[in-house]
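So, can you check?
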Amino acid sequence: MSEAPLLQIENLHVSVGRAKSAGDGKSVGDGKSLDDIRILKGVDLTVDRGEIHALMGPNGSGKSTLASVLMGHPFYRVTEGRILYRGEDIAGMSPDKRGSAGMFLAFQHPEEIPGVSVIQFLRQALSNRTGADLTVLELRLKVMDVMKELGMESSFADRYLNEGFSGGERKRNEVLQMAVLEPELAIMDETDSGLDIDALRIVADGINKLTGPERGFLIITHYQRLLDYVTPDVVHIFMDGRIVESGGSDLAARLEEEGYDSFRSVLT
């Protein structure tokens, strides 16, 4: 029997908000309930082990919503379809359980946590992910090795998580977390957004060093520039809540040349 795909999304439909309760009264300007606003409209996507998939789309197309839904964000409601991770339907799985199972989300806008150092955060996250209870020294040695590989200053580990970090430092910290936690499925939500060329290369180097036969990547981005350093196996064009075209890495180059307007005819 063949092994199930790492991630399989089948006909996924998602609306904003939870199921309505009596007298809820939440609505938008046109009078529709929040639960009536469909964001994802039939997404089909399979990411296998060893593959890098790039999901490219304009602002407001639903890309970040898909990332949040995959990690179990309670604000979004799956109304139809399934998300299978390693062959298991994860509809009832909480975000922390998804993380422990090997799913990882690199945030577009990472939050800061004053009073909690990077290394303290990593120790707790690694314990939740693997069950390993490393000593402070053991973890520090592991983190220092990873930081050296990523070209990061060792003092970074003792700073409070994202407090006072530049945009590039926040994104590099996401890559550090990914390298230490070694997830099976890494979802990167516009990690390249706002990065200068040096930070972009560090993020790309981190992705390339973590690729392997047991790990899959879903990289969500607006632009091709990250893909100049990371070569995807499959590129998907995402518009109006669904994938309108998929192809090889040359599809990203075509998008860069023609823009998203050339794909809008598929929506009509």
Observations:
- The helical segments are 63-70, 95-100, 118-130, 136-150, 167-181, 197-210, 250-258.
- The chain has seven helices and twelve strands.
- The radius of gyration is 19 Å.
